[in-house]
Amino acid sequence: MRRSRVRVMGIDVELLEFDEGVETVERAARASGEPPEAIVKTLLMRAGDEYIVVLARGLAKVNTEALSRALGTPVVLARAREVRAVLGVEPGAVTPLSEKVKALRIFADPGILHYEYVLVGGGNTRSLIRVRTSDLVRALSPSFVGDLLLEEPEAHDEDKGEPSQSQQHVVSG
Q1: Is 130 helix (H, G, I), strand (E, B) or coil?
Q2: Under DSSP, is residue 135 helix (H, G, I), strand (E, B) or coil?
Q3: Angle (nearest 5°) at CA 110 between 70 and 149
Q4: In CATH, what number does 2-143 get?
Q5: Which residues pair with 140 in a beta bridge?
Q6: What's residue 151's pLDDT?
Q7: Residue among 105, 171, 113 at smallest CA distance from 137
Q8: In what order do the strands lie in the sheet with 2-8?
Q9: For strand 75-77 and strand 127-132, is the pairing parallel, antiparallel, or unpaired?
């Protein structure tokens, strides 16, 4: 793993580059040595006629039914060709720190706030970005959805508190 400090979207981050692919949470966790729940996946989804982005922790599955209720329209995971067309990258290479992602409505799992730093996609299948969670939230201004996940991943550190009400913009369904 090679590490370098870079600035992306006005944020100082650490770029982690690997010899092997890190396009899945499992591979990213194994290569980086971080627990899966500290890895935030960036998912392109279709909500009716609109594309949205969902930021979710680790191995958890997105509760598309709850998100559909909250948005008032069916929500489905975008196909690989849609990811390429909308975001200009392959699935598994999506980074939330891109102007193309920022141009879309973004929804996030409030559980990402449990971590001071998280790993996100680095824009290709062999890199990750280590970013301060507060910087990620500030850059993207996501709406936090309380019941976004079907299964709640176990917290890595039980002593980390719940995010305060002032840190959340909750969309209720």
Answers
A1: strand
A2: helix
A3: 60
A4: 3.90.960.10
A5: none
A6: 58
A7: 113
A8: 2-8, 11-17, 127-132, 117-121
A9: unpaired
Token pair belonging to 90: 């392959």
User: Dihedral sign, CA of 29, 85, 147, 162?
Assistant: positive
Rounded CA gap, 75 and 51, in Å? Answer: 9
pTM here is: 0.83
Tens of pLDDT, residue by residue over 61-72, are: 999 998 999 899
Q: Which residues contact 2 (CB under 8 A, 6 or more apart)?
A: 16, 17, 18
Q: Is 128 helix (H, G, I), strand (E, B) or coil?
A: strand
Which class for 35: exposed (0-12), middle (13-18), buried (19 or more C-beta within 10 A)? Answer: middle
Q: What angle do CA 112, 15, 83 make, to 5 degrees?
A: 65
Per residue in 110-138, pLDDT tens? 999 999 999 999 999 999 999 999 999 99
Pairing of strands 105-108, 143-144: parallel
**CA 28/CA 39 separation, integer angstroms:** 8
Query: How far is it, in rounded angstroms, from Cα 94 to Cα 170?
Result: 24
Cβ neighbour number for residue 103 with a 10 Å cutoff: 12
Q: Domain limits of the chain? A: 2-143
CA distance 167 to 45: 24
Residue tagged 């141009």 (tokens): 103
